Amino acid sequence: MPSPVKPFLTIPQQIEHLKAVGMRVEDEATAAATLERVSYYRLISAYVLGLYADADKRQFREGVTFWQVYSLYAFDNALRHILSELLEEFEIRFRTRLANYIGEHYGYTSPAMFVNADYHRDMLDTLEREKGAQGKSPIVHHHAVKYGGDIPIWAAVELLSFGTVVKLYKNMRTRDKAAIAKAFGTPHHYLYSWLRVFVEVRNICAHYGRLYDKPLMFPPRLPKDCTFQQNMIFAVLYLLHPFVEPETTLNCVVRLREALCRYPAVELRRIGFPEDWETLLMQ
Predict the structure, then answer these.
(1) Domain residue limits, the chain
(2) pTM of the prediction?
(3) What is the share, in percent, of the chain residues with pLDDT greater than 90?
(4) Within 10 A of 190 (CB to CB), how many other CB atoms are there?
(5) What is the CA angle 79-262-64, rounded to 5?
(6) b/e per residue, 106-144, with b = 16+ CB within 10 A?
(7) Cβ-proximal residues to 106 (8 Å cutoff; 6+ apart), any chain
(8) Distance of CA 87 to the CA centre of its chain
(9) What is the largest CA-CA distance in the chain?
(10) Is 69 helix (H, G, I), strand (E, B) or coil?
């Protein structure tokens, strides 16, 4: 029989509960103001998983403070912003390369260059739904008025979600995937592995989800000389940095360093950062 849903707690009750299970709340007024801005579920439930003395009883280790938990949340917020910028640069680059290749070699509406005709039809159906949903956008309106609704690939990839664009790439023939992957300096099976995890992390960032102390669902393939954890977020930072402008990487490293100094409660091992993380990202 399932357990009953936990009862609602007011913010003062939330603070009393935290104190009862061993958390030190130094400034209750500040804690209450924080919980007015960031929900208990988003803040406490997500960032305390490594702070229990007894996980079954949900009893905190001695000395755990409300500020400590909030600092993990604040660092994670900074990390999400940094990753979002890197992912944006890569995503635009990938969409562009994919569109240019398809536009040069084939028509994307033909199943000839795709492995699975059903998946190809699903992609076209998805595009039609997006055209309907974004009917007032300049891209859709322009092509509806001037070209009867037909949209070229370089416009289509701007309407489709990144996840759908990655599925489009996955469904291409091996030689075509390999040709696109060559522009990224890697075999196509490596590139698809990276794309899959980039979609995962992009969705986490878009929904303000947690990256800290959270293993990746789709750990990416890494070069053989990599010794850091494959299934933690540093792997994504490492894979992205060669595909963005050097000044972008430098800016991100500086911001990460500042965030780590500002929030010393962060444990590098819980985000997969090796000791030489700065050197690795600046190579």
Answers:
(1) 11-64, 71-282
(2) 0.92
(3) 80
(4) 17
(5) 95
(6) bebeeeebbeeeeebeebeebbeebbeeeeeeeebeebe
(7) 112, 113
(8) 8
(9) 68
(10) helix
